[in-house]
Amino acid sequence: MHRRASGILAVIAPAALLVSVQSGKAEEFTGSVQGVVKSASGQALPGAYVKLTNAERRLTFMVITQAQGRYSLKNLPAGNYTVQGIGNGSQSSLTPVALTAGTPATADVALTGKQADVANGWVRTPGRVAGNELDGELPPPNLPDGPGKAIIEAKCNQCHYLHRLTEERWSHANWQQKVTWMRDRIHERGANDLTDAEQKIVVDYLAKNFGTNAPRADANGRLSRTLLNGDAAKYIAVDFAGPNPDAAFHDISVDARGVAWVNELNLYALGKFDPKSFAFSEFRPPDLGTKPGTLAHMGPPARGKGDSIWMADIGGSRRWLQFDTKAQRFSSSVLVPGDFKGPISGNFMRADPNGKMVWTTAGTRVVGLNIQTKEFTGYDIPYWIQTKQNPEAYGMDVAGDGRVWFVEREANRVARLDPTTGKIDEFKTPGNDVPRRMGADWDGNLWVGFHETGKLVKIDEKTGKMTMYDPPTKNNGAYIPVPDPRRKVIWLTEQTADKIARFDPKTETWTEFSLPIAESDARRIELDPSNPNRIWWSGDTSSHLGYIELLDE
């Protein structure tokens, strides 16, 4: 038995894998439940999913049944839950169960209904994988009839493809905010603006047809249709639905105490989720006395040395911020000099392990901040210099030799910056692969997720040679690989399959772990420094976050 101050405890018993959600204040969370999952014909089903959901706390716990179809969860917050079993293409109805402190509960379920179906791509584009950068290959969507449709078809496609609108599920207030922001920037594209009257019609139309009450994918739609076994059956998943569905948990970082931090793309705040209390809170950046822009937000967080997290202030001001996770306050603010023109941040940020630099991709260039001198440096990407087309520099990491690697999403390239000389080498991918994000492994080599072709790719840090690996699930939306130096494995987000996969480079074997919901939009994952078995994730369009945790025997 493995014991940790905080985490999941697992005990192999004769009939079940006993799972404890350890909260750190166990005296407050002593609820427990156990039961058996059976088929419609009464057969016990090992390897089935069991979901235990507390709507009040916005929490879902998912475990896998073990021998004789048994499951057990303990150290849960008291309250009203529903239990549901899923497996073999079937699912049970929702069974209510009340957990009280110190009193075990029992909930047996039978899988008498059909498991919901979800296409093998996002709901908005069945069968496809990539994001909005490839929507131009599709015919325009058939928008619902109603006031606003003609305006959207005439004006909203001037800057982006209309499929991007149909994927969202935003409130009226958030659609209002987004359209206002679009109008603030529309003149940058030389496009025709909406009138105030047209904006009202468009916002009402979008909130009605693509609002928070619009149909969504069934949560069970991408869970396995076959019963699980082996390592794939020895994990627990915890899912938290943020209190504001508009928040957009774009990226996640985890501090030394195992607390998760997310940048809320739509709220201009840094969110905190504490797995010891299951509590969520928010922190606003320091006020500079100027009104932030419509879409001001905290950029992707990057864990630095000690208790620090770095992020850029996007739209609020031209500054980079440092947050102290232990003191729970913004500890420093570095203003970008007025003569340092151009973009200062983009989709990803990474602190150099040596503690001297913080790096970010910024579309057409890579930007670095010297933490000691507070000096910013920008490096223009050769593809941009040569073509004047934005390569969309995206994910990045620092290799073992100190060189900064990054991907060029739109140019289908992977590049390497030598900060000492300023030289950037570029390596083309085999085709239209849409590389997203990357991570450096224990040997200094890079691993990249090819989003469109769904491949995990190893890149030799010295030669740039690419080696391709195919996950078991096709059209998986490979997003970010995170090397795990302790286990010598690579963790990979399979964004459009709602899975987190584990790849062993030595044996070239895969294990996939499903997340509790469909359309989770899980992008960034990060290892928990306080718990080597726990891998966190966050979902942008879903505004969910959570983790999977391996259960050791």
What oligomeric state do these chains adopt? single chain
Kindly report how far apart the N and C termini lie: 7 Å
Rg measurement, Å: 23 Å
Helix amount, in percent?
under 10%
> Which of globular, elongated, flat, extended, rod-shaped describes the shape?
globular
Please describe the biggest sheet, giving its number of strands, its sense, and whether it closes into a barrel.
10 strands, antiparallel
H/I helix tally: 5
User: Based on helices, strands and strand pairing, what is the structural class?
Assistant: mainly beta
Give the percentage of residues in beta strands. Answer: 35-45%
Mean pLDDT across every amino acid position: 89
Low-confidence stretches: 1-18, 23-27, 123-127
Number of DSSP-assigned strands: 41
How would you sum up this structure, described in words?
The structure is a single chain. This protein is mainly beta. 8% of the residues lie in helices and 41% in strands. The protein is built from five helices and 41 strands. The strands form eight sheets. Strands 4, 5, 7, 8, 9, 12, 13, 39, 40 and 41 form a ten-stranded antiparallel sheet that branches. Strands 1, 2, 3, 6, 10 and 11 form a six-stranded mixed sheet that branches. Strands 18, 19, 20, 21 and 22 form a five-stranded antiparallel sheet that branches. The longest helix is centred in the first third of the chain and has 14 residues. It is globular, with a radius of gyration of 23 Å. It starts with 7 loop residues before the first strand and ends with a strand. The N terminus is likely disordered.
